[in-house]
Design a protein that fits this description.
The protein is an alpha+beta fold and 302 residues long. The protein has ten helices and eight strands. An eight-stranded antiparallel β-sheet has the order 1-6-8-7-3-4-2-5, sandwiched between helices. Helix 2 packs across helix 3.
């Protein structure tokens, strides 16, 4: 009974995550969101905080501010345009929230992060690590691009629409048990896929959001659409053009691969689309002689 209740709660929170992602420019008050989850405001507040370790207001504000950083640093949008895009009534209210979150206003934050390639500087961070010099980081970029050229096949192609079953998590939890749950669930429906295609979708920018707060969907490709149940939701990745890096890498090379591919994309004049990036896996690392993953890293582009 307890597991059934937990799965039901997870299913309702899945709907909440999706609604928030798609409506950051709208009113996301506790009253509205609790109605979407079919909970009382009091009950929803408790469940949401248990699952996310944040209140709804904290979660929404963090998401708005962190997603706005991409527009602020990498697009030509004005601060007023960014404010309205992410649900703020005006430039002043956005700047106030931004400063509360990062310790400086958006203009100063942008001034401190003029390079597209250097690590983002966060004034409120409490560690004392020195940021690398711009020259040193450019050297690192050259090293990353050389590594990518020697280890990846890169292509630009139109990806078809993909129907998916998924389980959401916050932070990079070990994927094996999650993928096994998805496969077991699909088999229980009497569906046997010709090939088990497994994916991970990343809904936040790994360069901006803390690793333990990134919303991730572990997914199984469906040959036909299904209706989700409890903890397992269903979604789709719409047809669209992607830059795809095909690699054979160890677990500790994933971060390097993502960083290198984003740099390659920018150096070659491609613009990221609003859609979330994802990974497609083509093997089980445990069955590889060197425990490596054969993976496609896919970055949607305009």
């Amino acid at each position: 009974m307890e597991n059934k209740t937990q799965n039901d709660h997870a299913g309702r929170i899945n709907k909440v995550f999706e609604y928030i992602d798609e409506n950051l420019n709208k009113d996301l008050s506790l009253k509205i969101i609790s109605e979407i989850a079919c909970f009382s405001p009091f009950h929803f507040h408790r469940i949401f905080k248990i699952l996310t370790k944040e209140t709804l207001n904290t979660y929404v504000n963090r998401l708005r501010i962190e997603k706005s950083v991409t527009d602020l640093l990498y697009k030509s949008s004005t601060i007023s345009e960014i404010a309205f895009k992410y649900g703020y009534s005006d430039k002043a209210s956005y700047s106030k929230s931004f400063k509360k979150f990062y310790g400086v206003n958006p203009t100063d934050f942008k001034r401190q992060n003029t390079s597209r390639y250097a690590p983002i500087k966060y004034p409120k961070k409490k560690d004392n690590k020195a940021y690398p010099t711009y020259e040193k980081y450019l050297s690192n970029i050259d090293t990353l691009l050389d590594w990518l050229e020697n280890n990846a096949k890169i292509e630009v192609k139109k990806m078809p629409k993909m129907n998916l079953a998924y389980i959401s998590s916050l932070g990079k939890q070990h994927p094996s048990s999650t993928f096994n749950k998805l496969i077991k669930w699909v088999l229980s429906k009497g569906i046997l896929n010709k090939k088990e295609s497994l994916l991970t979708i990343y809904h936040e920018n790994l360069k901006i959001t803390e690793a333990n707060k990134i919303r991730i969907q572990r997914c199984l490709l469906l040959e036909e659409p299904l209706k989700g149940e409890g903890q397992i939701g269903t979604t789709s990745i719409e047809e669209g053009k992607c830059v795809i890096g095909s690699l054979e890498i160890s677990l500790d090379e994933f971060e390097k691969s993502w960083a290198a591919l984003f740099i390659w994309l920018d150096k070659n004049g491609f613009k990221r689309a609003e859609r979330s990036p994802f990974e497609i896996y083509h093997n089980k690392p445990t069955e590889h002689p060197e425990n490596k993953s054969i993976v496609d890293i896919c970055i949607p582009i305009e």
